[in-house]
Write a structure and sequence with these properties.
The complex is a heterodimer. Chain A has a three-stranded antiparallel β-sheet. In chain A, about 75% of the residues lie in helices and about 5% in strands. Chain B is an alpha/beta fold. In chain B, the strands form three sheets. Chain B has a six-stranded mixed β-sheet with strand order 6-7-8-3-9-10. Chain B has a two-stranded antiparallel ribbon with strand order 1-2. In chain B, strands 4-5 form a two-stranded antiparallel ribbon. In chain B, helix 3 packs parallel to helix 5. In chain B, about 45% of the residues are buried. The chains are: A mainly alpha, B alpha/beta. The interface between A and B is medium-sized, with 24 and 28 residues.
Chain lengths: ~325, ~230
């Protein structure tokens, strides 16, 4: 074979490993190192993003609690307690039950006797003293009517009041306008919340984009040099996008952590009253909120970097 | 080729060919169009008329997304060195190599970068950051970076403009060596002493027009250049 030129075997596996290693190095290792070296330029973006993500996280958890509160209120408001006279006979009660149950607007009916009514009252904060003050049981038996649509509660109330076995003093729990008032307040809060979140989102995107744009601008020479030595577009853009994602990720991690911590502190510290004012906010919900904030940070950071880099390179 | 910046014509009907292994000086007064010509070769700008071919690539037709293909075949040296300040000398050279070709492994990039730095006399300064190097040393690193990927063409825009005369001559020696390896080298300069001393091909631009193309060894004392 002396004198022959032998072509070396093409090692595809090795080549793939080299290219993969270079991609990882270029996109992640170098980006992480560069992020650390340029921390001073990135710090304003990091600070503003953290603050805005934290606010978004807290507003999100509050919105979730308000939504649950609204649902809870709606459910409670569509439950009509029809209070019965103490001398109502069982056949009369059954007749009223059947009449109400026959109405298609009624979902279900439950009967609460006086003993259960007393027990229920004793579990409500502030009422045990009142319940114990009287020697006899002051709480009436009731038919608890779950109405399908909250708008039909008034009509069912009118139907129930026609019965002679209904307590003449306090016939039902229906309070015309009470639910509407709560609904109006919650609707106002929801609108304000959405407007705030939209404004916050706009501010977050604007501030983040400007901060990242400033950070990119401060490194414009670096970008120009990379282009001049033949770095392809993705190699110029990629590390900046990853750096943006790191900035957003760190901001999201901090904001998500604080959101999670505050929610947990609220759950642990407020116990009963917290679950009353923020129903449905559990540790799992707080964890999901933290995850969403982290994801939003990653998306915001990388997206803003990508847009800023695209504009910078086009200009 | 021609190029205009708005209504001002920077280059007018310049017809120029560069040959492998040839060192060519591009001279002319300020505003003559030297930098514009270099930018056309490196596809930083496109000609408003005519064509630019670099190592078989039609630079005048290249879309921005494909410019990197051309830049891998063109090494560039600037007056202000343009080194990445946060990378060491070795990393600056290796970056250019791996930016040009992802198939180059880290070990190979390091090895070839060390070779390139040794070729420019800075084999022992690879770990230094640009701010820790003198102007001449930074320009050497920039030259190592420009040639490490073995480009077909090397262009240099006033590479000795920030250097003293002795260092400038050393840098020009490097360009001669690079040309001797087979690369077409085009150096834009105002340094008449170097041009006359080296007696290489000299292309003269005045007001965007190619007014003189003197082959190597026939440049004479170029007294006319000093007054142009």
């Amino acid at each position: 074979m002396a004198g022959d030129v032998v072509k070396a075997k093409f090692r595809r596996g090795h080549l793939v490993r080299v290219v993969a290693a270079n991609l990882v190095r270029c996109l992640f290792r170098d980006s992480a190192r560069s992020w650390g070296r340029n921390f001073g330029a990135t710090a304003p973006a990091l600070g503003s993003m953290t603050l805005l993500l934290l606010m978004a996280g807290l507003v999100g958890v509050t919105g979730f609690a308000l939504h649950n509160l609204e649902q809870q209120q709606a459910e409670q408001a569509s439950l009509l307690h029809v209070y019965l006279r103490d001398d109502a006979s069982d056949p009369d009660v059954i007749a009223l039950w059947d009449r109400l149950a026959a109405d298609p607007r009624v979902a279900r009916i439950a009967y609460t006797n006086k003993d259960k009514a007393l027990a229920r009252a004793q579990s409500v904060p502030g009422l045990p003293e009142l319940a114990n003050a009287s020697e006899s049981n002051p709480f009436p038996a009731s038919l608890d009517v779950q109405v399908r649509n909250i708008n039909d509660v008034g009509a069912i109330d009118a139907l129930a009041r026609q019965s002679s076995i209904v307590d003449p003093v306090v016939p039902t729990s229906y309070d015309r306008g009470a639910y509407q008032r709560i609904q109006a307040i919650l609707f106002g809060l929801a609108v304000a919340g959405f407007a705030f979140v939209a404004l916050l989102g706009f501010v977050a995107v604007t501030v983040t984009m400007n901060s990242i744009k400033a950070a990119i601008h401060s490194r414009r020479d670096e970008i120009a040099i990379m282009q001049l030595v033949g770095a392809p577009r993705w190699m110029v853009r990629g590390p900046f996008v990853v750096e943006g994602a790191i900035t957003g990720g760190v901001a999201g991690l901090v904001a998500g952590g604080v959101t999670f911590g505050l929610a947990l502190a609220g759950i642990a510290g407020g116990s009963g009253s917290f679950s009353q004012f923020a129903p449905g906010v559990t540790a799992a919900v707080a964890a999901v909120a933290a995850g969403v904030v982290l994801g939003a940070g990653l998306a915001l950071g990388s997206g803003s970097s990508l847009l800023s880099m695209r504009r910078h390179m086009e200009s | 080729m021609s190029h205009s910046y708005g209504s001002r014509q920077a280059l007018a009907d310049v017809d120029l060919g560069l040959h492998p292994g040839e060192l060519t000086f591009l001279v002319g007064p300020s505003g003559a169009g030297k930098t514009t010509l270099l930018k056309l070769i490196n596809r930083e700008i496109r000609p408003t008329a005519g064509a630019v071919w670099v190592a078989g690539i039609a630079a005048h037709r290249l879309q921005p997304s494909n410019v990197a293909q051309l830049r891998r075949r063109v090494g560039v040296v600037f007056q202000d060195f343009k080194l990445l300040p946060r990378l060491t000398a070795l990393e600056n050279v290796a970056f250019a190599l791996q930016a040009a070709d992802l198939r180059v492994s880290g070990d190979e990039a390091r090895e070839r970068s060390v070779d390139a730095l040794e070729a420019v006399g800075l084999g022992d300064r690879g770990s230094a950051f640009p701010t820790q190097l003198s102007g001449g040393q930074q320009q050497r690193v920039a030259i190592a970076r420009a040639v490490v990927a073995q480009p077909s063409v090397l262009i240099a825009d006033e590479p000795t403009g920030n250097l003293d005369q002795d260092t400038a001559l050393e840098i020009m020696d490097l360009f001669e060596d690079i040309a001797a390896w087979g690369t077409a080298v085009l150096v834009a300069t105002h340094n008449i002493e170097i041009v006359t001393r080296l007696q290489r091909r000299v292309v003269t631009l005045v007001d965007g027009r190619l007014v003189r193309d003197q082959p190597a060894g026939q440049t004479g004392r170029m007294a006319w250049l000093a007054t142009s």
